[in-house]
Amino acid sequence: MRRWLVEAALAGTALALGSFFLATTLNEGDGWPIGVELVAGTVAITALIRYRRSRPVALALVLVVLGLLFGLPMGATPIALFGVALYRTAAVAVAVTAVHAVSLATVYLIALGPTRIYWEATTFLVLLHVILVGIGMLVRSQRRLVRSWAERAREAEQGDELRVEQARLAERERIAREMHDVLAHRISLLAVHAGALEVRRDAPRSEREAAGVIRQSAYEALEELRQVIGMLREPAEDRPQPTLDDVPALIAQSREAGERVELRLAADGVPAGVGRHAYRVVQEALTNARKHAPGAHVRVAVTGHAEQGLVVEVGNPLRAGGSGLPGSGTGLVGLRERVQLAGGRLDHGPTATGEFQLRAWLPWTP
């Protein structure tokens, strides 16, 4: 709406100035018939509205010629010169203004001769155009200054955001290091005690086997902890990530720890990224089952194809109580966020048959 108001105001100004120049020409008994003047004025004002932003130099040169031949188009000429000063460099604006001044002075000298009217008319028109061009150059400089201030403010804001993000990353790394120091010490003690129990000759064979599983799990926990800490320092592409092919090994580890897990894997050619998400879904589901339904029979099914997508389903009977293992309560929240970021869906909760079921759908995206 504002643009249309500006265009209307410019057209009205050009028409008013052109009418003044046309009336002056008619009073002196010169000029073209009024019909020709109206056609020339309409063409000049239409071109001014349409091309003053996109082609200001070409428009100004055309209107200079029309303004020297006709009276009504003279009103659009100063506005066209103002547009040159507004949308082009100062050198271009000065050059076009100089061409117009020289042309105007030459044509008027030929038509009027070195009379008083010639000097008055030439001085008035040249000063009018020079003043408008100067105003246009000032407006252009002011706009560039405002844009430079806005750019500096934006860069300063981005610098503040970058510093805040760097501070967050540094704090996360510090917390992760502290976590590594504490957990590594505790897990190492667990592995040492489990190893001692494993080599005791007077311990039953089942206890020694369980101690071996604990020692191996503690060792793997230490390795995974080191990998998590390494995520803060290394690009993710440099670290090997689990895929769907690693799910059977994950199930085997759970079985060695005493869980009863049934696996049905019916998906081939799964992209590595999708398989990694599926692995994490199964891993978190088995952890929850071990915490909240120890000893329950867990069913894991991973099925799908390229047209359907990948579906991961994990179910186990609901049981009162749990294993007593500590938990943050945010595992499923983080898992839902992971699945949603991958473009999938995650549903979980008790069913009517007295089971807890977790179902994740992942798009088959390479």
TrEMBL record:
<keyword id="KW-0067">ATP-binding</keyword>
<keyword id="KW-0472">Membrane</keyword>
<keyword id="KW-0808">Transferase</keyword>
<keyword id="KW-0547">Nucleotide-binding</keyword>
<keyword id="KW-0418">Kinase</keyword>
<feature type="transmembrane region" description="Helical">
    <location>
        <begin position="90"/>
        <end position="110"/>
    </location>
</feature>
<dbReference type="GO" id="GO:0046983">
    <property type="term" value="F:protein dimerization activity"/>
</dbReference>
<feature type="transmembrane region" description="Helical">
    <location>
        <begin position="58"/>
        <end position="84"/>
    </location>
</feature>
<dbReference type="Pfam" id="PF07730">
    <property type="entry name" value="HisKA_3"/>
</dbReference>
<dbReference type="GO" id="GO:0005524">
    <property type="term" value="F:ATP binding"/>
</dbReference>
<dbReference type="GO" id="GO:0016020">
    <property type="term" value="C:membrane"/>
</dbReference>
<keyword id="KW-1133">Transmembrane helix</keyword>
<keyword id="KW-0597">Phosphoprotein</keyword>
<feature type="transmembrane region" description="Helical">
    <location>
        <begin position="32"/>
        <end position="51"/>
    </location>
</feature>
<feature type="domain" description="Signal transduction histidine kinase subgroup 3 dimerisation and phosphoacceptor">
    <location>
        <begin position="171"/>
        <end position="236"/>
    </location>
</feature>
<dbReference type="InterPro" id="IPR050482">
    <property type="entry name" value="Sensor_HK_TwoCompSys"/>
</dbReference>
<keyword id="KW-0902">Two-component regulatory system</keyword>
<feature type="transmembrane region" description="Helical">
    <location>
        <begin position="117"/>
        <end position="139"/>
    </location>
</feature>
<keyword id="KW-0812">Transmembrane</keyword>
<dbReference type="GO" id="GO:0000155">
    <property type="term" value="F:phosphorelay sensor kinase activity"/>
</dbReference>
<protein>
    <recommendedName>
        <fullName>histidine kinase</fullName>
        <ecNumber>2.7.13.3</ecNumber>
    </recommendedName>
</protein>
<dbReference type="InterPro" id="IPR011712">
    <property type="entry name" value="Sig_transdc_His_kin_sub3_dim/P"/>
</dbReference>
<dbReference type="InterPro" id="IPR036890">
    <property type="entry name" value="HATPase_C_sf"/>
</dbReference>
